[in-house]
Design goal:
InterPro entries: Sds3. Its main location: nucleus. Keywords: Coiled coil, Nucleus, Repressor, Transcription, Transcription regulation. This is Transcriptional regulatory protein SDS3. With 267 residues, the chain is mainly alpha-helical. Among the domains are: 46 residues; 138 residues, no CATH class. It is rod-shaped and about 165 Å long. The chain starts with 7 loop residues before the first helix and ends with a helix.
Length: 267
């Protein structure tokens, strides 16, 4: 008979060793059966995977497809939202740019109109002043020519011929001086009273009227003949052409005319 250990620990160790020997014997006897079952299960799973009928695989595949569809839907919605927001922002910026463009164009047009209107007014004033200056110069020249014909037709013709051959700057200076003298006469020569200016103007008008009434036909014919025949000292002089009026001279003339007109108005 087999003897059992006396202690409790020894008995437990003996039972465990006996159990392991039984398991080893059972495994040795049933090893082929277990391996065959595992091989059959693996082959069945592989066949189901190849055929697409594996339940676990199909469930996993369905989960992945669902996740994929959800992700694609989210991406599509996000892209659509971004596109709509970009289009909306583009339309707003376009409207704002068009509004700014229209506003800027309106401001530019208004400024251009105002500038052109100021230029037009200035040109109209300059033209009016030039017309006044030309009229005064013409009347003063005619009055001096008629007054000179009373003192002698030869002296008048010589003076007018000399003036005819003056340069452009000399004629402009003479015209400015005559216009200044005329305005000074209208204003009483700046140092006299208004009564003295009116008296001198009436005296000059009376002299001009007497000169016009006292001029006869023969004196005018002699003056015209003298004008048609140039003097001998100018025969050899070649024609140099009319000098153009410089911009600075024109501005100086306009400034002088404005100053004299203002002074005449205030007086």
């Amino acid at each position: 008979m087999e003897e059992y250990p006396a202690s409790k620990r020894d008995r437990r160790r003996h039972n465990m060793a006996l159990r392991l020997r039984q398991l080893d014997g059972a495994f040795e006897s049933e090893r082929d059966i277990h391996y065959n079952e595992m091989l059959h299960t693996l082959q069945t799973s592989l066949y189901a995977l190849h055929q697409g009928t594996n339940p676990e695989f199909l469930e996993r595949l369905a989960d992945l497809e669902e996740h994929r569809d959800n992700r694609l839907t989210e991406l599509y919605l996000w892209e659509r939202y971004q596109t709509e927001q970009a289009q909306k922002q583009y339309e707003e910026e376009k409207e704002q740019a068009n509004a700014e463009y229209e506003h800027t164009m309106q401001l530019v047009k208004e400024k251009l109109r105002a500038r052109l209107e100021s230029y037009r007014k200035r040109l109209s004033e300059d033209r009016a002043l030039l017309d006044v200056a030309n009229d005064h110069a013409f009347f003063l020249t005619a009055a001096s020519a008629v007054g000179g014909s009373m003192n002698g037709s030869g002296a008048s013709a010589s003076g007018r011929l000399d003036r005819a051959f003056l340069s452009a700057s000399d004629r402009r200076s003479l015209r400015r001086r005559e216009f200044t003298e005329d305005l000074s006469g209208l204003s009483g020569n700046e140092g006299g009273t208004a009564t003295g200016g009116r008296s001198s103007r009436r005296a000059r008008n009376a002299t001009n009227s007497d000169a016009e009434t006292g001029t006869d036909r023969g004196d005018l014919d002699s003056v015209l003949k003298d004008l048609d025949a140039p003097p001998a000292r100018h025969v050899t002089k070649s024609y140099q052409g009319v000098k153009t009026l410089r911009f600075e001279d024109g501005l100086a003339d306009l400034a002088a005319i404005r100053d004299q007109v203002k002074r005449a108005k205030w007086r």
